[in-house]
Amino acid sequence: MSETEDFCRRYMAQWDKRSLVRAKTRFELSPGFDRAEIVNARLVAGAGHPKVTGLGPEACLYLKMQHCYDYLDAVASGEAELIAKVAIDFGFGEGDGLLPKAARQALLTLATDETYHAYSARELIEVLEQATGVERQPPSVQNVMTSAAEVTFAHAPDEILPFARLMVVGLMENAITDELVELIKGRDHDSPFYDFNRIHLQDEACHRAFFRVALRCAWQWLNRQERELVSELLPVFLGAYILTGSRGDDPVLRARLAAVGMPEADIEAVIRDVASVVVTKDTHPFWINVRKCLDVTGMLDDDDLAAGLVAAGWPLKNQPMERAA
Length: 325
Known about the structure:
There is one protein chain. The relative contact order is 0.13. Helix content is 67%, strand content 1%. It is globular, with a radius of gyration of 21 Å. With 325 residues, it is mainly alpha-helical. A two-stranded antiparallel ribbon has the order 1-2. Mean pLDDT is 87; it is low at 319-325.
């Protein structure tokens, strides 16, 4: 494990210098910011629809702010309740033999980062409520990160549960971080949403690199039977985490459209148009990012794992692996 240990020691040596919590970085709104520019409408289902824009800027702002609050809530709950918890458990001995001591210590720094991110996200919600005058409505759906993790852990046999927990958070960190890179690349500059993600990405890029090394190390210690069990479990995780198909009748969007005073007939038109967008497994950005992580960690080199993914409909070839660098 010397290569993994060397990486983790370098990781910890840099943590004091670059982590947001050690630098006491806080997010602040720029003076004179434009409420309409907090989140680009293209990122929010229905916000750019003519039926919505026809109601005026306040209606569009309401949808965009609720989307922004949903995102920040997901950051807070996913990082504190899932990723930080798994990192702490491994830091104090879970999965004995999968990771060296230096990696476990590094996971405690990662847990510290994630808890700080949760605090910052919750703090930002209050800042944005005061700045925009749009109050946060209670989240209407469960966080897909935590729900997918619950499904996967419930299906994991005891002998691979520690690896399954490490795999789930590692793949999620890679999928989300690569998507953040795409989200802010050349777009939405100088908007609060852009700035928050740019700052957040400083830590998450380091976490992505760490989990790639950790998964590569832990995978090497699994025996043949354990790898076969992981091959059976991975499609369960992907099916719960990467949602494909159409949005269908989105009750959350429906309620928000009603809240801005949209007539029922117009609500049906917006729901219908939003539902017409279909996301497939081969084009879903999270799958492209997860597949890249599986590739660089060496997990895709396992024939049984690769065959299990193909059988479950997750394509391995003819997709742009370089999409999220």
